[in-house]
Amino acid sequence: MSEPIMNLAIIGAGRIAHVHAAAAARDPRIALKYVSDIRAEAAEALASMHGAASVDVDTIFADDAIDAVLIASSTATHAEFLERAATTGKAVLCEKPIALDIERTKAAVDVVNAHPVACALGFNRRHDPQFAALKAAIEAGRIGQLETLTIISRDPAPPPIDYIKGSGGLFFDMMIHDFDVARWLLDEPIASVFASGGVMVDPAIGEAGDIDTAMVVLTTESGRLCHIQNSRRTAYGYDQRIEAFGSAGMLQAVNETETRLRYTGEAGQLDEPPKHFFLERYGIAYGRELGDLYDAWSTGSAPKATHEDGYQSLRLAAAATQSLAENRSVRLDEIG
Amino acid sequence: MSEPIMNLAIIGAGRIAHVHAAAAARDPRIALKYVSDIRAEAAEALASMHGAASVDVDTIFADDAIDAVLIASSTATHAEFLERAATTGKAVLCEKPIALDIERTKAAVDVVNAHPVACALGFNRRHDPQFAALKAAIEAGRIGQLETLTIISRDPAPPPIDYIKGSGGLFFDMMIHDFDVARWLLDEPIASVFASGGVMVDPAIGEAGDIDTAMVVLTTESGRLCHIQNSRRTAYGYDQRIEAFGSAGMLQAVNETETRLRYTGEAGQLDEPPKHFFLERYGIAYGRELGDLYDAWSTGSAPKATHEDGYQSLRLAAAATQSLAENRSVRLDEIG
Amino acid sequence: MSEPIMNLAIIGAGRIAHVHAAAAARDPRIALKYVSDIRAEAAEALASMHGAASVDVDTIFADDAIDAVLIASSTATHAEFLERAATTGKAVLCEKPIALDIERTKAAVDVVNAHPVACALGFNRRHDPQFAALKAAIEAGRIGQLETLTIISRDPAPPPIDYIKGSGGLFFDMMIHDFDVARWLLDEPIASVFASGGVMVDPAIGEAGDIDTAMVVLTTESGRLCHIQNSRRTAYGYDQRIEAFGSAGMLQAVNETETRLRYTGEAGQLDEPPKHFFLERYGIAYGRELGDLYDAWSTGSAPKATHEDGYQSLRLAAAATQSLAENRSVRLDEIG
Amino acid sequence: MSEPIMNLAIIGAGRIAHVHAAAAARDPRIALKYVSDIRAEAAEALASMHGAASVDVDTIFADDAIDAVLIASSTATHAEFLERAATTGKAVLCEKPIALDIERTKAAVDVVNAHPVACALGFNRRHDPQFAALKAAIEAGRIGQLETLTIISRDPAPPPIDYIKGSGGLFFDMMIHDFDVARWLLDEPIASVFASGGVMVDPAIGEAGDIDTAMVVLTTESGRLCHIQNSRRTAYGYDQRIEAFGSAGMLQAVNETETRLRYTGEAGQLDEPPKHFFLERYGIAYGRELGDLYDAWSTGSAPKATHEDGYQSLRLAAAATQSLAENRSVRLDEIG
């Protein structure tokens, strides 16, 4: 095996950092060297699980032997670390979002563009095998011209109210993933956004100034249409489906279950419920993100999702927020 | 069998008239007496198939022995015949729409309300066994509180351009059915409508002043949401699906196929395509419409869909048309 | 409509007779003239529902205006009525079996062969749309050469013990339908039968000298294989499936449900249970049997199933019975 | 992590050895130390991929630091290596079969029983998540009493004729897996076997003295029934299904596909074909076999499949072979 080793540092030692560290451990081409977290014990624990050292972030950016940085720290720190990774010439995989406001995001994006490095953003759904197969089938012309896209995306249960208060709202925190999927599959700039929504799941969410249920319609510059539907709660697990309708057919990505075992009894023919939440549903996808960064780092290929994708999805969230407030279709060019 | 016989006259002798006449022939409680059509030979042909007489419409309305009238003539004549049925005290099943404009519709509705008769409107989908089971499951509380409704409705192929020119447009001609399904399932007044759409199937449809693809979002007065999606063309037949999402679960009505036979070969596991179009898909539903009118006539029960439902759906079509033109959400109380 | 009218008499006035009478009423080409039953009131009731006369059987066979006889009386009378229908030159649809013993069956078959009339046997499954589509797909070469056939056939609940005592046993009473389906689809003489079975559902069935669960393997003369599996009880309704495996693919006929509505909740994704029993599952098939007889009577075409098919299936039941008793494969040429 | 490290040696360096070595590499509790193969370069290549040493087998059995041996060499060598592992006190995972003849197998089983070590046999299907869920559901009483079991198992294409000649025949080479699944799920001794089969796929298989298509019926000591169906070729990939029918319901394990993406077009609604063959279908299962051995080695738990299971399945293959030759049901107690 003549493939080079990519020396990796992870900033953050929370749940997602653990998922990525485990993926790194399974990939012989990636060596986890450092873990850093403001909670030193958390960093120490994760580092020791993988034979890495627990260090402060300055050590990471100062060490020329580090090829790549994975940013899985709190959202407020993403933009700064992203900029430091770019200016120190390190490949970077940054969890989304870069920042909750567009200005800060734009500034970071500008820095990365000024210091080109392999820069991947953690839009995990682009790495999901079923969604990737759907994307490939569209590109292969399986459905002719894609005309309408329908994305249904529902969480099993809302996050704590405190989380919601700092989340930027449903469009920035939850639908942001769907905006990215829409952009990825439509493969064309969005021209306008109409959003409507309400509070159906928990009045406390409304009291916190947010909504928990939403329907959005996107129109692309050429006039194609996309519907996105979100709910913060289901009775049955994580609901993640995509329907791509085109002139020559339709593609449907459906929910995954733990196994395909079917039970038939008095009540009917029962398939398992959808997988519970994102860690279960997108487990394979998380495992592929670092490999994608490795490819970008070693071959110069484009990551499946980049800082630019993060920026554009944020603009859609901002447009949706404005549309909901003003109850009208908002043009993307109204958004900074 | 002590059930009374309902003497029926059919106005119109086209395709749908034939479907209804066949349903009448299978129901021993219904006697088809008269058929009337401006094309005398057509009326004669249909009448002779069922042992009925071909007459002019005045004969129908003048004959006290006629209990019920089925209006399946051209759209422009619906309102007048509906009014005549009401004023002559006959039960009536009227194909939709009552009229293409709201004022004419409202006038006819007022006449019917002033002369109460059993008045059913031909919204066939309310009679579909699968949709009816979905409605019953909602009412039985199977999904708790209904929160969002998603209706996907696509025709296999667009009608001729000449038809489109006189159709009133996609919202009045095609989505009107989905508006009715939405009203039926949401069971609550609609507060506002947002519509977007475009021409993706055939530029000639655009040149005729219409669209062929549309996405609409309805908001009910209590804030619940409904998405409706239409296309005038699929590669695979008639696409008619409903998804009702609620606090305690989800119900999905899916496409019907001719049989459930599955073939597995090199290309994969293949189920039959959806049934081709409405006569195939809603064959059972058409067969039930006259029975529903019979029940209303003989027992005084309310028909599954009434002239009022026809009027309200038309208002939604008008609101959607205005929304598309003005690219904003339109409140229903803006519509007459 | 220049199609001739077929004047029909029904012998028997039980549940199946009612089903057939209703089918006759829906077909304008068939006129039900007589009903006969040893229970005069039952005959009277059915006759009056359809404007027919209640008569004794001699009247039926003596009336030259009667074109066709439907035999739905008790099994013990089938053979005699079948012979009388043939010798009086009437088309006949006989419920299966012709008789429970092979000798009596053979005698009746010989009489019919000596007096050729349109003679259909009530193997309803040949008329089922899904099974018919499977048969057509095999004949169209969809799966290349058919190599193995698997038939799973389970009743929702066992019949009363008294019925079982007079039924001839599971192979003659229940699997006889599957033997016919196997013969129909394999379209080649069966060479040998191996049967095994046991009592799992109800010990009383064993005490009555019968089994309630069975597995059979048929081998055709060219060496192809067929597996048939029966149970007298399920927890979930009528289980009727066929899998045809061939060199170029596989066809699977699956269970039917009342509607295709799917519910998703905490327990999973739930489709309706299979239709409850044969009247629900094969309702369409029953409705087609008389039409098939009409075609045979009016055009001389072969009915989908004939007296010969009844005889051959009975030989398979006899071979299975012997195989079970002797715990070995039995060659068909050992059976009379 | 206080879990002990299990030092592993692999005998054999073919395809399956590579699969197991990769699984070992992903498990931090397992250290691959040695690889041995009669083809030294093959051993060298595999060893170097994983930082192990290429050695002769004597070195493996002489090294007290080796805790476990994985036997993936040619079938003819399995029994001897299994015995050596047992007598040198090493845990062992042996690919199936132990030997092709019962006597040799019995001798090896006796040696293992005399020198108790953790001994796992490579019946990969017991480790498949879907089948394991089916087993767990049976044990949880989901279907009440299991009454009949149906196993359909078809390969995508036959192996080379030379392989077939040395394989021991379909029952020993292919159906052996299904015999093990049947024993595992029925959880009760088999009393008798009836087998029938033929040559439908390739006459050359018949000329080599084997069959390529088979149907078998097993009867347990308490009288329950199991059907197994094999074909050496499909048009659509690897067909691996199980249906467990019981007094309270039915469980069905169905084929796996690469993704669940569905395409709908003119021809119908198309799911992906089943995964191609065993490496794809049972990839997860292979990855779990070493973990199961680790558990047995470290905790003394029983492996999911043992040498005893290997022996008993071989007896079923022998009984099936005799049944096919003599065209009768063979009692297991006739087999040594």
From TrEMBL, chains A, B, C, D:
<feature type="domain" description="GFO/IDH/MocA-like oxidoreductase">
    <location>
        <begin position="131"/>
        <end position="251"/>
    </location>
</feature>
<dbReference type="InterPro" id="IPR030827">
    <property type="entry name" value="Myo_inos_IolG"/>
</dbReference>
<dbReference type="GO" id="GO:0016491">
    <property type="term" value="F:oxidoreductase activity"/>
</dbReference>
<dbReference type="InterPro" id="IPR000683">
    <property type="entry name" value="Gfo/Idh/MocA-like_OxRdtase_N"/>
</dbReference>
<protein>
    <submittedName>
        <fullName>Myo-inositol 2-dehydrogenase</fullName>
    </submittedName>
</protein>
<dbReference type="Pfam" id="PF01408">
    <property type="entry name" value="GFO_IDH_MocA"/>
</dbReference>
<feature type="domain" description="Gfo/Idh/MocA-like oxidoreductase N-terminal">
    <location>
        <begin position="7"/>
        <end position="122"/>
    </location>
</feature>
<dbReference type="InterPro" id="IPR036291">
    <property type="entry name" value="NAD(P)-bd_dom_sf"/>
</dbReference>
<dbReference type="GO" id="GO:0000166">
    <property type="term" value="F:nucleotide binding"/>
</dbReference>
<comment type="similarity">
    <text>Belongs to the Gfo/Idh/MocA family.</text>
</comment>
<dbReference type="InterPro" id="IPR055170">
    <property type="entry name" value="GFO_IDH_MocA-like_dom"/>
</dbReference>
<keyword id="KW-0560">Oxidoreductase</keyword>
<dbReference type="Pfam" id="PF22725">
    <property type="entry name" value="GFO_IDH_MocA_C3"/>
</dbReference>
